[in-house]
Every structure is written in C-alpha cells, then in structure tokens.
Amino acid sequence: MQQGRVQTPDFKNNLALKPAARPVDTFEAPAQIPQDNNTARLVDALSAFSSTIGQLAPTLGQAEAASKNKKDDAALAERQNFFMKASPEEQRRYIVEKHGLDRDEVKQAAAIGKMDGARYAEMVQGELQTHMQTEFDWNNGDPEEYARRFLQNKLQEIGRTDEPTFVSAYSQAGQSFIQNVSAMRIKRQADHMDVKIKGAASDYFRLTVDDSVKAGDDPQVTAKKLLTAASDAGKRGTLLLEDGDVDKYQLDELERRIDSNPQVVIAAIHQGRTGAGGNRPSYIDDPATRDRAILLDRKAGIALQLQRNRQERDTLIAANTQAIESGNGFLGLRDLVQFNPHSGEETVYSVESQKDEAVRNWIKQDDATAKRLGEAPPQTILRRAQQFAIAGLQDPDLKAATDSIAQAGSPEVLQQPEAKEKLVQRLELINTVTKTNKNLSASYLKGQDKEFVDGFFAAREALGRDDTAALSFAYAVTNPSPQARSRVFAARHDITNAVKALRDSKWFSLNNPSMENSGMVEDHLWDLSEKYAAAGLSGQDAVAAAKSAIEKSAIHYNGTLIDVGSINTRAEMPSDFKGAVEAQVAAFLEDSKGKAYDASQVTIYQTGDKDGRFYLVDKDTMSPVTDDNGAMHFFTLSNLRAWDNANRQMLDNANASYNAFNQSVNAKGLFQALDKDGSTVWINTNREIWHNTAEEGQTPNWKKTGKRYSRTTAISPRGLPVFKRPERMNQKLKAASTWYQRVVVGAKITASAVADKYADEMQNDASYSDIAKETGTRIAKPVKAATDATIGSAGRSAAEMINGAQDFISVGKKAEDAINERNRGR
User: Where are the domains of the chain?
Assistant: First the structure.
C-alpha cells in the first residue's frame, strides 16, 4: 500500500530570509485503489443461464477476501510505522482525528482501535508519571485512585469512548500502570522508612559527638562514646539496624568530621568495638571496613596537620595583633616553618607575611573603634599611623598615599580635575600627619616623594601659590629640565646672599654660637635651594622655599636643629623625640655627678653619616661630654624608639591601673577626705572609713576598717565637699643601659672589640624585647679595649675626643645596624 504520509526533512541553510517554521499537517490519505467488481457481477448475472458459471462465485469470493486481508495488514503496518516515526504531538493529533478509520470496515476498524488505544495509553502513562513525581502528595494522597481518575479523564478527552477495541486496549494498559503505581507506593514507603532510620541513626551519632565535644571531652573519650552508641542503633537497640548498616552510618559520620574533629576520627577508627555478637575489631582491623577506614585515617591525619598549622598561625596572628595594640612591635619575630601534608614539603610563613596579616587583622578590629569615635578617614589614618609607628610598622593607607606620589604628579594630572583633586587630597593627608607628628611623616617620605611633597608645600605656603601652580613646581623639582643647570648658575649669587643672611641671623643654630650642627643644616639648605632654583625659582625665593621645607620637617632639642629630612635610616622616628633624648641625658647625668653637668648645658649632635646616630655634646662648645669614667654617650634612632615604646606602655599600664582604681572607687561610692589628724582616708556617705588591701597595680580589694570619719562632712578649706581622686601617672621612664652605648674617649677601639661588645649584649641581654623596670636601674657594662688603651679624658682636646667618637662610629656601624634590625623585629 502506498505510504499515507510524506516525510519532508527541514530545509537547512544559512540564508537570512529563511521563513519561520510553522506546524504543517503533511498527512495525505492513501490512494484508493479501484476495486474491479465487474467479473463478480458478470458471473452473478450469467449464473442463471449456466450452473457451471455459477460455481465460479465461491472461488472469486475467496480471492477477494485474501486480497482484502492483505490490504488491511498493509494499512496496519503503515500505521505502526507512522507511530514509530512521528512526534508525540503528531501521534496525539493522528489518534484524535481518527485518520484511516473506516467504520464500515469493521475488522480493520477494530484492529486500528486496538492499536490506537494501546498507543494513547502509553502517551497518557508518561504524563501520569510526571504528575505523580511533581504534583501528587505521596504522604497524604491515594496514588492508585489518583492514577485511575487521571486515566479516565484522559479517555474522556480523546473522544473515542464509543470504540470498544480502543477502550479495551487503553484500559488494559492503564490497569497495568496502576499496578506499577502500587509498587511505586510500596517502594517509596520502604525508602522513606529507610531514610528515617538512616536519618535517625545519623542524627544520633552526630549529637553524640557534638555533646561530647561541647563538654570538652578528650578525643579518645568522644570516640568511645560514639562507638558505644552503636549498640543503641543495632539489633538490640531502638533502630534494629544490622551491624553492617551501623558501621556504614558511623563511618559516614566520621567522614563528615574529618575537617572539624580529625583527632576524634583517628581515635574512633583505631578503637575496638562491641556489636550484637560481642567484641568486634576496630574499623581499621575489620576486613569489611578496612579499606574505607584506612582512607579516612589518612584524610584525618592530613586534616589534623593542617589544623595544627592553622592554630599555630592563628596564635601567632593573635599575638602579633596584640603586639600592635600594645605598641610592643615584633621584636624577635622569626619565620614560621611548617610541614605541608599535601605536598610533603616545608612551607615558610615569612616575617613579612606575618606582619602584613597582623596589620590587616588589627585594622579590621580597629574599624569598630573608628566607627565608635565617628572619625573621618584622615583622622583614622593619622591615629592608626601613630599606633603603627609605636609598633615599628607603617600604616598601609598612609603608605599608599605617600608611595610614588611624585610619579602621580605628572603634567597630565593637571588636565584632569578629578585626578588632580585626588592627588591634592593625598598631599593634604600627608600635611596633616606632618603638622601632627613630623617624625611620623619623615619615616614614610623618602627620595623623590619627599622632594615632591616638600616642593608642593613650600610653593603653596612659603610662596603663596595655588594648588595647580604648586603641583607644577613640585613636578619641576623632581623632573629637572635641560635648562636646570643654567638656572642654578644664574641664581647662585642670590642664593649665597640669602644663605648668608640666614647665617647672620643664626637661624641654623637657633641663635646659638655653634656652627658645627648648623653646618649640616646649611648644607641641606644649599641642596634644596639649588633644586628649587633648577625648577625655576629665583635665588631669593628658592632659599625661602628651602627654609620653609626644612622648618616643616626639622625638630629641635635644646638649641640644636635636627633635620629629619636629611636622616637616611630604616628606623622610624619616635613619637616623643624630645622625651626620648631627655631620658638619654638623664641617664648620662646620673653617671656624671662628679662633673656637675646641668641638663640645660647638654644637647645632641647628629653624626655626619646621616644614619640616625647621635652623641651628647656641650651646648656652648659643641664638644663631646663624658661621664665620670671619661666615656662618651652614644645612641641611635632605634634606641630612642625603644625607649618611646617602653615609656608609652608604662604610662598606658599606669593609666589602666588608675582607671580600674577610679572605677572601683565610684562603684563603692567612696571619696578621699582629710581627717582631723591630718591623715587622708577613703570614706563613704555614712562616713565609714574603707581601706584598699590590694597591692599597688592590682585590682582594688576594699575592706571596712571599723572606724568612722571624725568630721560630720568632708569639706575642703573653702568649705566645699572633697571629692578627690588619685593623680594620673605623669613620670617618665629612665633609659635602660641597653638603649645607649658608652665609649671611653682615647681608647684604642678595634673592630673585633666593638663587635664582641655588641655580640655579648645581644646574646646576654634579653631586654631588647622587654620593657624596662620602672625603677630604671642601670648596670654599667665595661667596654672591651686594647691593653694599651688610656682610660680617661683629662687633658684631651675636643678634637681628640671627636676623633675617638668617629673611630667608634666607623667600626661599630655594622654591629649597630644589626641592633637596629633586631629592634625593628626583622
């Protein structure tokens, strides 16, 4: 039979004008083959005239029946072939529209109905299965009844309920699926029960471990509790699980605990167990669980090592963060070497990484403080920078503002208002820091960056230029033009006259006769003046701008100008430079009582190597002063910062004690009063006298004395009530002996002797990382010298003493660098 449907494949091409596809019914009814009934009619007509011809009728009937059967079989085969190839939607439409169905052909119609009914049932079953999985409520519904209603509704929708063979085939297939639904219900119930049992077992094991861990049990104890819980879940327990299932659920729980409780996992795997049949081997010894137990044991071992590494790092980070908070810095910090269990190699947690992480952690904690104080960003940066300086660190935000600022000041920036505004904001932040603590800004600004910043503010503040002109000048300072040399040559005469005028005014030595220290400052002034002249200023303006820049960065001590900008050192300036130097002078005077120096007579001298080294000199003569043993007093910026940190911590501790005491007094409602006998006592409003039995610095412990204040009210001489509190501590720490060096003038100092001296002190004196005691007791240490050294300074000239000092500086610089490095925690 001719095929009833023409299959046309999609026309695929890349043409832009390809028409949009739309559904098209391509069905074409099979061609009706004309039936030749003429022979049958002729035989029927002639049979009345001849019996022989009439006998041909049965033969012709059989032939026609065979031909019809063959035609029907071909039609059914063609229909089956269509169902195999057509889409579900095409099949549905084919069945609904009853293509090829001829009710007059009863036999063929019955066969088609049976085929269509079975096919439609398959399609409906797919829909029903989807509905059962997505919409049906298995917990509360009846799945068999739901399936029956669904199948019945779909049969009504198709509109072929009047075809017995269609309905029979559809119903038979539907009944088979309803039986499958019943099996699904039973399986789901079993699975649900299994999940409930598994969940109950898992929850029980999880809670057992959680409770033990929260109770602080040892890992061995926790593991034992977990293994003992197996009996409650086994055949003799409430869940009636087989030993194998219990093992599986316990191992599942242990696997979940690998990262959080690796020690418990290891302990549980290696401990013996009990089961329904008595004692059982450990998981790692049981053949049924050995492979998985070995794998868990290996993973837990790795997790345990990683956990220890994290704990070690966390402890270190917490200590370093606290070091920043307390201002101790990172004295004695070393690289942390750890074992990586994944690679089997050692990993190094470097000092710099430790510092960076501690800084990030401290800033994160300090954000709450900044929020509580309601600070603006510049205020927060300034406060943090000062705290970091105490710890010997640099604030990352301030460092970001200062680093490469000279490169950010290119001419292109002047053409971009937004970029120029951001650059000026960075400069204003630096200016705020400098005005608050010039020592602090000096540790951040070096080289071209310092020249750029100094040039900007010199032009704006000393010469009155606006921001744009000041930025242009600062760029010219750090990027000299080809005409720079000729400009300097042309301005040199004016520079000389302007510098001479400053010299005559004794600006360099702050009205002191000394020219030694002022010479160093004058040299720096000349350098800056020439740089500014090269950038286009006149000689007079160049000197004025240079003078402003030096005044902005320099610090004073007892008539001596210390140009911080000329100090090239890795050590940061102390926040209290004057206080630190005063502590050095006080320590020197303590050992110089025989010479009767006065503190106002002693000042400092900055050595010519510009590396942050100083010694004490006579203010009038600028000659080195010596103690009663004839030794000069040397110290470095690192020594000053060590004192500054220790003094700050001492004051913080004292203030903390004061605050704790004050809070205790307020809580008790006590106040100080002067009794009739002249004694000062603590009383309450009932005039009862209380006494603090705790030692100084400890938490107050108040006890009643059993006595009563003799006066009716506590009054002051002016007749007002007395509410007196203890005074805040305002004393300063003495300089410990490790914070300076004494060198006997005139002694023959050898490099090895000085190196030995530093080595001994660094080896034997641990107080570099300790805070000096409040008493400040000094222990004089003998200085190693050659046997031909002449002790004493009697009769020696200032020049000879200075030469001795230079000997010390030249041979001790390497050792001093080592001490500076150590003090900074590197």
Answer: 1-7+68-214, 217-374, 397-561, 577-637+733-823
